[in-house]
Amino acid sequence: MGAHMDPGKARDWNSLLASCLDGGGRRAWSEFVAAAYPVIARVLPPGTDEAAIEDFVQSLLLKLLENDCRGLRSFDSSLGVPFPAYLHVIAVRHRIDRSRVSRSRPAIDIEKAVEVLGVAPEAERRLQRRELLEAVERLSPQQRIAVRLLLEGLSVKELAGILGVTEGGAGALVWRARQELKVILGAGV
Amino acid sequence: MDGDGMGHLSDIEIALLLTGGGSRALHQVLTEHLEACAACRALLVESALADRAGSQGSEGRGGPATVPPDGAVARVLQAMEAAFPETVNSPAARRRIPLVPLSTSCADRPVLAAQSLSADTLPTLTSDDGSVVVHFRRPEPGGPIRAYVVRRAPSQPGQMWIVFAGGQRAFPVDSGGEADLPGIAESDLLDGRLALELRPREGEPGDPEG
Q1: What values do phi and psi take at A95, rounded to 5?
Q2: What is the pLDDT of residues B116-170, one digit of tens each?
Q3: Measured between CA atoms, how close is B125 to chain A, in angstroms?
Q4: Residues of B with CB below 8 A from A160's CB?
Q5: A–B: how many Cβ contacts below 8 A?
Q6: If you average pLDDT over every residue of chain B, what do you get?
Q7: Chain A residues with CB inside 8 Å of B92's CB?
Q8: Above 80 in pLDDT, residue B195?
Q9: How far apart are CA B163 and CA B169, in angstroms?
């Protein structure tokens, strides 16, 4: 994850958040807004104008203060997740909600699948969406989620973090998935 | 924010996946859900891609400014103050959080469920929003029950008390989150009379005894 996810600042964030939630008053909240502003703003696309950024930040922070700050109190500092990482996910969810963009993405893009998975040219010619979907379904659960996330644009490094394995382990998992897909597609088409 | 009741991953669980924190077993539980849930997978992917784009932006390749423009923080704070004056302006005040038995309804929330597995024979209590979990154990046979408080939202040290029967008895929670509860029986844990109380530090505005 990016630099703002650096756990080195976690203690400062936890202290600031605790100060706000435990009645630190306007001064604590002012510090919090100043610190949270760039974390929230960075989920917006390049070129977003300042007024729109400010409106977005404000609407999210107001939402977090609802129901006695439930959104902030739900942060579980004992899990070791840096607060900015949590805020980042909340901001992305807020952006999705506001833009009313469907969260569902195309299941599999055939051209990208061919490029990412490196299936054989002869299979590529005959490859059909349905066949690829069926082939992916025949992989192990861990291989399936790895393939899906890769096809949706994540890197092997990001995949490793999500699966809780090393980058090498994630690479090996993808390699095995590719081999199995080649076998399945080769045999099935 | 903590799921919508349909068994989706919470924001903290998505963040945990993105930062690579937590045990491998927990990752396995969460990724099994991801494999079956397109909505959670999409939120995860969007979050990862936004983080990647934000990192590039902060390195000078575009993206929103990382420093708030002049006056922006003050304006946002003003809006927060107008909408939630008691939250933003109020000095610290005593706040009591009722503790109830941890229910099995957390089965669709892997993090909570995993934590409940660590409980021993004494019951585990939690706040209704799950932000506070209290485990109990009796370290010595015949000795007092000891409470182990896990407050998920960060807290300032030395401000927590376990209170019983509306505050008739109060037991300080030490900086390690532990409190001995002499005179409290096992049956008292389940009757809804225990609460966690957050008190302002002595001398701070809002402390009735300060």
Answers
A1: -60, -45
A2: 444 457 888 888 777 788 888 888 888 899 999 887 666 665 578 898 877 778 8
A3: 16
A4: 20
A5: 270
A6: 77
A7: 22-24
A8: yes
A9: 6
Nearest C-alpha in B relative to A86: B15
pLDDT bin (cut points 50, 70, 90) of residue B197 is: confident
Name the residue facing B55 among A3, A75, A145 (closest C-beta).
Answer: A3
Output DSSP code: residue A44. S
The token pair that represents A138 in the structure block: 């025949």
Flag if A75 and B38 touch (Cβ within 8 Å).
Answer: no
pTM, two decimals, is: 0.65
Q: What is the ipTM score, two decimals?
A: 0.72
Nearest to A75 among B84, B93, B153 (CB): B153
Say if residue B106's pLDDT is above 70.
Answer: no
What are the φ and ψ backbone dihedral angles of B133, each rounded to 5 degrees? Answer: -125, 135
Distance between CA B173 and CA B138 in Å, rounded?
16
CA dist A133 → A57, A108, A181, B67 (Å):
39, 8, 10, 45
Structure confidence at residue B179 (pLDDT) = 92
Longest dimension (CA), chain A: 67
Decide: B69 and A50 in contact? Cβ < 8 Å.
yes
> Which amino acid type is present at position A33?
V
> In the structure encoding, which two tokens stand for residue B60, read together?
């000078």
Chain B residue nearest residue A147, CA to CA: B35
- On chain A, the residues whose CB falls within 8 A of the CB of B80 are 29, 33, 58, 61-62, 65
pLDDT at A5 over 90: no
- One-letter amino acid at B130 equals G
Task: Tell me if B31 and A158 make a contact (CB, 8 A cut-off).
Answer: no
β-pairing, B169-172 vs B145-151, is unpaired
- Nearest residue of B to residue A33, measured between CA atoms: B73
